[in-house]
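Please go through the protein record below and see whether the fold suits the sequence. Record follows.
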Amino acid sequence: MLKIGQRGIRHLQRFSTASFTTVSASSIEKGQNRVVDASLTLIRERAKLKGELVRLLGGAKASTSLLGVPLGHNSSFLQGPAFAPPRIREAIWCGSTNSSTEEGKELKDPRVLTDVGDVPVQEIRDCGDHSISYPVIRAVSEKLGGPVDVLHLDAHPDIYDCFEGNKYSHASSFARIMEGGHARRLLQVGIRSINKEGREQGKRFGVEQYEMRTFSRDREVLENLKLGEGVKGVYISIDVDCLDPAFAPGVSHIEPGGLSFRDVLNILHNLQGDVVGADVVEFNPQRDTVDGMTAMVAAKLVRELAAKISK
């Protein structure tokens, strides 16, 4: 019996090894692409149904759809934020606060917010990193038929020409955006980790960079922004590390000396312009040292952005 069992185990091991080695990388990729295509079809159908519902309800020119993208092969430091979308959703609806935004809009109203789910991108090194801003802003500008103005809140300018040999690194996303002509104006706020290349790239693309060292001087301008005139709208990109880590410790790149949460809300609430899209990126649940704190911060940003987009 022992010998038979050993033979059976060895046969099973050979079978298992053979099964895994005969699946080609292209087959795996095709399978994953089919899953993504099916998911995107479902997302589009849910968005259409939501649009019909909003039209029936009336009283809305635009509403917000929430889409999670757990993508991260372009991260340069820590991995981990693959779990960010469900953690943010949990924080939005956890019951510790009500469902109204500070401007008085009700999140449970489909004219304000509808969650259409996640794109099922599954990788060994999943992460919701800032590289996603390039394809999203590109898609928005192409859909609208022209460039947008971009308000980018971050500790870093993410404008390297090619970071560590990767042109699509999360540290290079805004270089690709500006090269492609997808943004007319790019305002970067909260910057406090920038080197010579970051400043040179900023000058090359005409970026308006507001560093934290001069924030007290620039506050009045930043809290009274008027964007989007003459273009197709305004896109807002928020890297959670724009905030001082005292407010949001759950990030991969901890950089002291950042914005307060109220600073960010003042900038968002007072912004004049037609906001057509936004992203909240780089929340890393594995570094959220105070239980749920950064998740609640990210959720609050999503809530207030939803209110800003819905009209």
Residues 77 and 301 are 24 Å apart (CA to CA).
